[in-house]
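Technical annex, item 7. During the second reporting period the consortium partners agreed on a shared format for inverse folding records so that results from different sites could be compared directly. Each record opens with the tokenized structure and is followed by the designed sequence. A conforming record, contributed by the partner at site C, is shown below for reference.
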């Protein structure tokens, strides 16, 4: 994908995000785009950044680490949106402003420990497997409250909201009930009013369904293909 098509595609996506927000009676600025750059080169990330992309999302710690090293001068935040193993927590807290994929007490404790070592408060989201798919990571809805209660006293992580990946379907309407479930789950957790637990962010919606996600309350949409083209 050349720079000018990345530019045009990004501009188009930003317009679609804003229209979807406004059509749902929301402030256009209440939805942030996470430009998903997994498998993309540092040069493609640069092209997207110069076209106005503010936040990048990566799936793999090693790939992100190599890419971010080449992009220090950009000064853009990177989010981790892929599954994280505890043994990579140390690297992850050094690289990512927000980790979308926390789904266990163990991982949260390890992130807290590593963040404490470098004097950071690590923003995290809890990934919820609202579709109860065996193939997907994420905690089941039934375990969400217990997880949040177990980690709310950890001082070096801050839970900022929830993330989900609904079961794959070509029809964006099929995702709507799952997006709604995530929003309602966030409402329930917010009602517990636990210290260190905020429910400001809902990370949901990708290329095929981000407008539906925005209608259901998404504050972070994670979009790759619509900006960079199909991944090979
Ligand atoms: C790859 C990926 C995306 C982006 O998907 P597209 O369909 O390319 O927009 C979003 N979220 C997660 C967790 C991903 O792994």
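Designed sequence (site C submission):
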């Amino acid at each position: 994908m050349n720079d000018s098509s990345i530019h045009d595609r990004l501009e188009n996506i930003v317009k679609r995000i804003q229209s979807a927000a406004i059509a749902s009676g929301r402030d256009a600025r209440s939805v942030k785009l996470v430009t998903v750059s997994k498998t993309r080169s540092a040069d493609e990330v640069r092209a997207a950044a110069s076209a106005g992309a503010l936040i990048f999302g990566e799936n793999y710690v090693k790939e992100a680490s190599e890419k971010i090293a080449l992009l220090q001068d950009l000064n853009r935040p990177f989010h981790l949106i892929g599954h994280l193993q505890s043994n990579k927590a140390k690297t992850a807290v050094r690289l990512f402003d927000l980790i979308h994929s926390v789904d266990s007490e163990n991982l949260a404790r390890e992130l807290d420990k590593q963040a404490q070592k470098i004097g950071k408060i690590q923003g995290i989201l809890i990934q919820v497997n609202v579709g109860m798919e065996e193939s997907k990571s994420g905690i089941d809805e039934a375990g969400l409250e217990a997880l949040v209660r177990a980690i709310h006293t950890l001082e070096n992580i801050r839970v900022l909201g929830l993330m989900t990946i609904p079961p794959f379907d070509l029809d964006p309407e099929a995702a709507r009930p799952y997006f709604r479930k995530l929003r309602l789950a966030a409402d329930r957790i917010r009602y517990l009013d636990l210290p260190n637990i905020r429910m400001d962010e809902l990370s949901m919606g990708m290329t095929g369904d981000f407008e539906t996600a925005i209608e259901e309350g998404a504050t972070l949409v994670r979009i790759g293909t619509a900006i960079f083209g199909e991944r090979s």
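The CA atoms of residues 102 and 126 lie 5 Å apart. The chain has one domain: 3-228. All partners now use this format for quarterly exchanges.
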